[in-house]
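Why should sequence recovery work at all? Because a backbone constrains its sequence more than one might expect. Tight turns favour small or flexible residues, buried strands favour hydrophobic ones, and helices have their own preferences. The token representation captures these environments compactly. In the example below, the structure is given first.
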């Protein structure tokens, strides 16, 4: 068999590339290297702004030309770094050499020795990961999640009064509305989205073992903790002053657990909507030209929700692995986090793919109210809860001598289908007040939804 030309190994870089491409701007190797160049350049500017080691602040024009090194970062820089890393066998050192090369091209050789000054690779990496993950989450992942939440809110509002039979333990239960049930998912996701939005993105910049030793040896009269804090916070991320060689990654563990939590809720949404489709509560809108089955022409399969379900499971497993691995570093540093963090984009990519499929799937379903109505009408026994509760209230009010209303209704309805006539006959014979009897006789499964419509608006 002939060997294929090089092909994408991950479906995220092949079949699903279009759905996750925006993450590549931040969480690809190129995105990480661009952020590394940004940190190196901004550290140079920070040092010269303070006129350290005999330097003078760069002019605004010089700063702009220097910042263009990362702002215009593209294929030429990607190729340059690949070639250099093949020699250095060290990715961050290759970035340092790139910055030095560009300084020379800009006529700024005088400050070249301040490139990567007193920095360990993990100073650059921690800031770069904080920047890239922050941008990927806030600019790509969260907006997609918010779009799905917005769609759920719209569906909840549209179907707030669409009465349907609930199923607790898979069995007929007290009716609800489709809108209220969809609102539950929107509410859950909004809570987690707010937690993700409040996440910290931390970096360290304190040298080889987190002690600022080299900084102090070079210039003992500078308040290096204050300077490096100001530098990191000036990048728009938070500063961690107490670390080993690496930033401890606890913020990443917290963030990935929150995103995994959101994924669990989304997974629950996917399986519930799939089940509603299976029950006939939602009909699927045919997509022109699409094939549901290779052999059964009639089928429209709920593939959007199945795709989302599977990708959320992959994403959740990767996020859990990231959180478990990144929380530990042997003594002052080991290298397990290096390869682990390169999979952040893969974990978020599968989550993003699921969000896209959920958004598309939610737009391809239509509520089948007649099916909901027929299901309700076939399950009048769900009114047993209402009847026994009213009887208990009547007993408490002294208007009934019934001794065990729960047992009475259990004998009538448990494991049995009871229709409207049987319930009406039963209620008519109850020892309760006339007002309570009238309310119960007027009740139907479709009307027994309590405050479900109002719950849609609760926050």
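From this structural description, the recovered sequence reads:
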């Amino acid at each position: 068999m002939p060997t294929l030309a090089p092909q994408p190994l991950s479906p995220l870089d092949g079949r699903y590339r279009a759905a996750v491409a925006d993450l590549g701007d931040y969480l690809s190797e190129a995105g990480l290297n661009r952020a590394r160049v940004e940190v190196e350049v901004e550290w140079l500017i920070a040092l010269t702004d303070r006129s350290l080691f005999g330097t003078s602040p760069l002019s605004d024009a010089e700063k702009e030309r220097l910042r263009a090194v990362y702002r215009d970062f593209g294929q030429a820089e990607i190729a340059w770094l690949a070639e250099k890393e093949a020699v250095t066998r060290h990715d961050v050192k290759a970035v340092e050499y790139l910055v030095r090369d560009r300084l020379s091209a800009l006529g700024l050789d005088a400050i070249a020795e301040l490139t990567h000054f007193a920095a360990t690779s993990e100073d650059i990496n921690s800031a770069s990961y904080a920047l890239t993950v922050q941008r990927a989450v806030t600019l790509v992942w969260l907006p997609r999640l918010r779009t799905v939440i917005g769609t759920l809110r719209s569906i909840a509002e549209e179907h707030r009064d669409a009465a349907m039979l609930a199923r607790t333990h898979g069995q007929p239960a007290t009716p609800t509305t489709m809108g209220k049930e969809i609102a539950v998912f929107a509410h859950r996701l909004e809570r987690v989205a707010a937690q993700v939005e409040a996440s910290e993105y931390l970096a360290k910049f304190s040298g080889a073992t987190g002690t600022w030793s080299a900084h102090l040896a070079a210039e003992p009269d500078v308040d290096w903790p204050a300077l490096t804090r100001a530098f990191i916070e000036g990048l728009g991320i938070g500063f961690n002053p107490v670390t080993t060689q690496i930033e401890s990654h606890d913020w990443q563990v917290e963030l990935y657990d929150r995103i995994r939590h959101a994924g669990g809720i989304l997974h629950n949404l996917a399986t519930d909507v799939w089940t509603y489709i299976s029950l006939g509560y939602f009909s699927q809108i045919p997509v022109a030209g699409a094939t549901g089955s290779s052999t059964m022409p009639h089928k429209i399969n709920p593939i959007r929700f199945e795709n989302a379900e599977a990708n959320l499971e992959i994403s959740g497993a990767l996020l859990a692995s990231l959180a478990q691995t990144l929380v530990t570093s042997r003594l002052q540093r080991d290298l397990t986090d290096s390869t682990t963090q390169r999979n952040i984009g893969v974990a978020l990519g599968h989550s993003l793919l699921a969000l896209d499929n959920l958004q598309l799937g939610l737009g391809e379903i239509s509520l089948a109210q007649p099916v909901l109505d027929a299901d309700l009408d076939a399950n009048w026994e769900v009114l047993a809860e209402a009847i026994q509760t009213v009887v208990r209230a009547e007993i408490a009010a002294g208007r009934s001598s019934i001794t065990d209303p729960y047992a009475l209704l259990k004998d009538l309805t448990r494991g049995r289908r009871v229709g409207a006539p049987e319930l009406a006959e039963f209620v008519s014979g109850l020892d309760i007040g006339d007002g309570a009897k009238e309310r119960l006789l007027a009740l139907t499964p479709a009307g027994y939804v309590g405050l479900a419509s109002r719950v849609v608006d609760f926050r």
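A few observations help interpret the result. The chain has three domains: 19-119, 122-369, 379-455.
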